[in-house]
C-alpha cells in the first residue's frame, strides 16, 4: 500500500511542477510586480522600485479602463447566461424523440468548430448597412428598424453578443446532452408510476442531475468570455468609439 502511494506521488509530481512553474509562479510574480514601477513594455536596466498601491489607485481613477472592465463583465455575463439557457433547451429538445436529432445536433454544433475569423467575416457582411439582416427587415415592411448594426454605438455590443452566443451555443448544448444521457431512465419511469408530470420530472430529476454539467458549462463559458478577443476584433475592432472594446483589446 505504501509503495502504491509513492508511485502515485511520482506520477503526479511532473504535472505539479509544470503547473507551478507555468501558472503559480507567474501569478505570484505578477502580484509582486504590481506594487512596483516595473514596465514590461519599456524594459530598462533600472531596478524596479516599490510604489505601494499607486498602480491600483491609478487603475481605479481611470474612467476609460473602468468602463472597459464593466463592458467586459457585461459581455461575459450576458453571453454566458444566454449560451447556457439556449444550450440547455436545445439539449432537452434533441435528447430523444426526433428522428433527425443527430443531424440537428451536428448542425447546431458546427459553428463551434468554425474559425472566429470566418464567422466574423460572414456576420460582418450580414449586419452591414446593405446586408442580409436589413434586406430581410425591409422585405417584412420594417424599414424604420434597419441600421448599420455593427457601426451604430447602441447596437454594436448587443449584435456582437448575439454572434458570440450563436457561435458557442452548440458547445454548451453538447455538454448538456452528455449530462442528460447519463441520467438513469428508471428515475423517470418510477416518477411516471408515481404520477409525476413532465414539469415535475424536469425540476425534481433532470435539473438536480444536471448540476455537474451546469457548473462545467458556467466555468468554461465565463473563463472564455472574460478573455474574448477574436470575434469582437473581427466584427467591430472595438468600435464604434470604443463601444465594443473589451479588456483584451486594450
TrEMBL record:
One Pfam short name: BPD_transp_1
Residue spans crossing the bilayer: 12-33, 73-94, 106-128, 202-222
Descriptive protein name: Sugar ABC transporter permease
Subcellular locations according to the entry: Cell membrane
Membrane topology recorded in Swiss-Prot or TrEMBL: Multi-pass membrane protein
Principal subcellular localization: membrane
Organism from which the protein derives: Candidatus Limivivens merdigallinarum
Domain ABC transmembrane type-1, residue spans: 69-250
Entries under PANTHER family matching the protein: ABC TRANSPORTER PERMEASE PROTEIN, INNER MEMBRANE ABC TRANSPORTER PERMEASE PROTEIN YCJO
GO terms of biological process kind: transmembrane transport
Similarity comment text for this entry: Belongs to the binding-protein-dependent transport system permease family.
UniProt KW keywords: Cell membrane, Membrane, Transmembrane, Transmembrane helix, Transport
UniProt cross-references to InterPro entries, sorted A to Z: ABC_transporter_permease, MetI-like, MetI-like_sf
Superkingdom to which the source organism belongs: Bacteria
Cellular-component GO terms for this entry: plasma membrane
Amino acid at each position: 500500500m505504501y509503495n502504491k502511494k509513492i508511485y502515485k506521488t511520482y506520477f503526479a509530481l511532473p504535472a505539479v511542477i509544470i503547473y507551478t512553474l507555468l501558472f503559480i509562479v507567474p501569478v505570484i510574480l505578477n502580484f509582486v510586480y504590481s506594487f512596483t514601477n516595473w514596465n514590461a513594455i519599456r524594459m530598462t536596466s533600472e531596478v524596479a522600485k516599490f510604489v505601494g498601491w499607486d498602480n491600483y489607485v491609478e487603475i481605479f481613477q481611470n474612467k476609460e479602463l473602468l468602463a472597459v472592465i464593466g463592458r467586459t463583465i457585461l459581455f461575459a455575463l450576458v453571453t454566458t447566461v444566454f449560451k447556457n439557457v439556449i444550450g440547455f433547451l436545445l439539449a432537452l429538445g434533441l435528447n430523444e424523440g426526433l428522428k433527425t436529432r443527430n443531424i440537428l445536433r451536428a448542425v447546431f454544433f458546427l459553428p463551434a468548430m468554425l474559425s472566429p475569423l470566418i464567422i466574423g467575416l460572414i456576420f460582418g457582411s450580414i449586419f452591414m448597412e446593405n446586408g442580409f439582416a436589413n434586406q430581410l427587415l425591409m422585405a417584412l415592411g420594417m424599414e424604420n428598424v434597419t441600421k448599420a448594426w455593427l457601426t451604430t454605438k447602441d447596437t454594436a455590443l448587443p449584435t456582437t453578443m448575439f454572434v458570440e452566443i450563436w457561435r458557442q451555443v452548440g458547445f454548451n448544448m453538447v455538454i448538456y446532452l452528455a449530462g442528460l444521457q447519463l441520467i438513469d431512465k428508471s428515475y423517470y419511469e418510477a416518477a411516471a408510476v408515481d404520477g409525476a408530470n413532465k414539469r415535475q420530472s424536469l425540476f425534481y430529476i433532470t435539473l438536480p442531475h444536471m448540476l455537474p454539467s451546469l457548473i462545467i458549462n458556467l466555468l468554461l463559458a465565463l473563463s472564455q468570455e472574460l478573455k474574448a478577443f477574436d470575434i469582437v476584433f473581427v466584427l467591430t475592432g472595438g468600435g464604434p468609439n470604443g463601444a465594443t472594446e473589451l479588456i483584451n483589446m486594450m
